[in-house]
Amino acid sequence: MKTINAQLAGCWSLSVLIVCLLTGLKSQAQTVLTVTGEVTKPLTLQTADLTAMAHTQVTGKDRDGKDHQYSGILVVDLLKQAGATVGGELRGENLTKYVIVKAIDGYEVLFALPELDAEFASRSIILADSVDGASLGPGVGPYRIVVPGEKKPARWIREVKSIEVRFAK
């Protein structure tokens, strides 16, 4: 009888552990993107938050050499929502700020803050969630930075998990 009770207790403990792990994974899966660093309102965004934001369309040439239509959120809009210094505030020492975009696999790319701002740059850099009318596939999405007009898409970082604003000092 003690052996059966010990086995049942072991199964119950294993079941609780599995439920805890799955709940933890579900919580992590809901947090899709963070915007942190030199901002006044750090953001932790879920898929629903990003889906509800205004989307912009851009055309860009991917690694396949073909033009594709991407839809997503202007990165500067995410930065504005987080309270980053953009627009008219982007002068003086604020011009030394930069943005690091990080992917799930550890890949990182850098942008000078002014190149993301429409008051300085003539192109729209987006956090894309779809290409040619379809969601981004596994290994690319759910979100990808798209930089139209770059000769090489090396900064078109896939599986974006965070955006961090920093000073270059």
From TrEMBL:
InterPro entries: OxRdtase_Mopterin-bd_dom, OxRdtase_Mopterin-bd_sf. It comes from the Bacteria. Pfam families: Oxidored_molyb. Residues 32-165 form the Oxidoreductase molybdopterin-binding domain. Residues 1-29 form the signal peptide. Keywords: Signal. This is Oxidoreductase molybdopterin-binding domain-containing protein. It comes from Spirosoma endophyticum.
